[in-house]
Amino acid sequence: MGGHAFVISGPSGGGKTTVVARLRRQLRDLRRSVSVTTRAPRAGERDGQDYRFISSARFDALRRHGQLLEWATVHGASYGTPKRPVLDALDHGWDVLLSIDVQGARAIKRLLDRRAILIFLMPPSLEQLRRRLLRRRTDTPAAIRRRMAAARREIACARWYDYTVVNDRLDHTVRQVSAMITACRRAHQGRPSAAAGQRGPRKGL
Ligand code: 5GP
């Protein structure tokens, strides 16, 4: 039987990167999809680990040659999920973790249907999200306004995710998401689990 794709989305600045890093340390047998992007690396980001940083020409070539499972433009840059590594891992029975935006999540759900499990990381409030973005000091005031507008649009999509987790305290969030992933995996292996019952209705897909 094939593996599952666990897709994590949420507004940028909401702590998604930290949650994903912690999940990977806890759930070592999850494969993480490394996306390609045309945006410039941020301080501390490593090519091939955080993203594959590529030119727009290369991105277009990958897209044209059908080598991306999904792609989207987010905050003015292109992002995409390389197709082969994800499909190969799933075919070999590995579960894969994807940290992608709401457009990508929708595309992955269409492609993989029940083999895709969508988890939305919800900021405790828009005001807290704005404060986190200000604290990061990586964005201009105009960029923060754009990210806040994008956050509102993304939050509106949370209703068609399988799960929503309010990201208030990091430890708590990681525990909850990790328990969900573990419960899903057990359920699909045919083993009963209490947490598996938390899965919400799937609407609008
Ligand atoms: P950042 O530039 O802050 O790392 O990411 C910006 C947004 O792009 C985030 O919401 C992130 O989840 C999303 N993203 C990263 N990789 C991909 C991808 O391969 N596909 C899609 N659709 N979104 C992505």
**Percent range of helical residues:** 40-55%
How would a textbook summarize the main sheet?
A: 5 strands, parallel
Binned strand content: 15-25%
Structural class by helix and strand composition? alpha/beta
Gap from first CA to last CA:
24 Å
Bound molecules: guanosine-5'-monophosphate
The DSSP helix count reads: 7
Mean pLDDT: 90
Low-pLDDT stretches: 192-205
Number of strands: 9
Q: What strand order characterises the main sheet?
A: 2-7-1-8-9
What's the number of domains?
1
Relevant terms:
42% helix; four-stranded mixed β-sheet; five-stranded parallel β-sheet; 7 helices; binds guanosine-5'-monophosphate; Rossmann fold; disordered C terminus; 205 residues; alpha/beta; globular
Describe the structure.
By secondary structure, this protein is α/β, with parallel strands linked by helices. The protein has one domain: P-loop containing nucleotide triphosphate hydrolases (Rossmann fold), CATH 3.40.50. Helices cover 42% and strands 19% of the residues. It contains seven helices and nine strands. The strands form two sheets. The protein has a five-stranded parallel β-sheet, sandwiched between helices. Strands 4-3-6-5 form a four-stranded mixed β-sheet. Helix 1 packs across helix 7 (170-188) and helix 5 runs antiparallel to helix 6 (141-157). The longest helix has 19 residues, at 170-188. The chain is globular and about 50 Å long. The chain starts with a strand and ends in a 17-residue tail after the last helix. The model is unreliable at 192-205 (pLDDT under 50). Bound molecules: guanosine-5'-monophosphate. Guanosine-5'-monophosphate binds at residues 12, 35, 39, 70, 72, 74-75, 79-81, 99-101, 103-104.
